[in-house]
Write a structure and sequence with these properties.
The protein is of the alpha+beta class. The chain has one domain. It is 42% helix and 15% strand. The chain has two helices and three strands, in the order βββαα. The protein has a three-stranded antiparallel beta sheet, covered by helices on one side. Helix 1 runs antiparallel to helix 2. The chain starts with 11 loop residues before the first strand and ends in a 6-residue tail after the last helix.
């Protein structure tokens, strides 16, 4: 994506699960620390929300490639695999899997 986002830039993470709520925040090294994005009551929802910037970036890169001058034929196999890996990683981040 070439334009600046009008949302809080990623990466986003979630933490603070206390059986009642979970916070989604910007993973930032800014002096003020974390910027809270959302507060949810399900950890699975927090995982999906936290993955939003990664999902948007991966999907946008794929669409830019497919809509480009080569209609998806102008990338090397390695570049295509890297894009697929980014998409898989974003999906994996979005899918909540309990640890126990």
């Amino acid at each position: 994506m070439t334009s600046e986002p009008n949302y809080t830039p990623g990466p986003w993470k979630y933490a603070g699960w206390d059986s009642v709520k979970c916070d989604v925040y910007q993973d930032s090294t800014a002096p003020h620390g974390r910027d809270k994005i959302a507060e949810v009551i399900r950890e699975a929802d927090a995982a999906l929300i936290a993955a939003a910037p990664d999902l948007l970036e991966a999907c946008s890169a794929w669409m830019d490639w497919m809509d480009g001058p080569g209609d998806g034929t102008d990338k090397t196999i390695e570049e295509e695999e890297a894009m697929r890996a980014d998409m898989r990683a974003a999906i994996a981040k979005a899918v909540f899997r309990p640890t126990s």
